[in-house]
Amino acid sequence: MSAHKIEPGVVGHGIADPDDSVHRGNPVTVDRYTAGARINHWITATCLVLLAVSGLALFHPSLFFLTGLFGGGQLTRALHPWIGVVLFFSFAGLFFRFWRLNLWKGADTTWMVRLNEVIGNRDHEDPELVEIGKYNAGQKIVFWGMSFLIIVLISSGVVIWNHYFSDYSTVDQKRLAMIVHSIAAVVIICVWIVHVYAAIWVRGTIGAMTRGRVTGGWAWRHHRKWLKELVTGKPPG
Q1: How much of the chain is in helix, strand and coil states, percent to nearest 5?
Q2: Catalytic site residue 80?
């Protein structure tokens, strides 16, 4: 059993993340995200939305009207990079909190190869598909994709942030950085859309990010290996 102290009503704690725990009751509930993790997540999500809107406003003249949401063109141009800085540090908090849980495992490759069965809801009792840890392969791809793209965006963004860094790069380097920044921005918006769609598609996921808890049935259905770890206090064999 786990070395962690078990409080009354608590069945067990997580190993990789001691903040995760299972509570007795009807229904059984499982702690999935702490208040700190949820605040961290929503700050990151808010920044990402603001960056997408302000970035699109600056990207094409037909979308310039969106600058009205930020107080005009000049203010949008000034705020956009600073919001990016907040996003970078906010996401860094999520990264250092969850990177170990998002390391790729052999079961993730199987999950991706048989993704059509998962999407078709034909994975109920297949041991190769239901024994999923805290995150499935799709969630891990989003995590690492976001991590990579945010590094690309902050790096290229600094190069084109003329107010502070105009003397540190050539015109050609700024042009290249602008292209890279724009492509990365489009890709991360697409990744974000997939992330939101998946959260809506899998019922109970949004509740986990608002209330921090899921039911035992949800955990058994979608992340069985994680639930077993919480109950037994050790990774399932």
Answers
A1: 70, 5, 25
A2: no
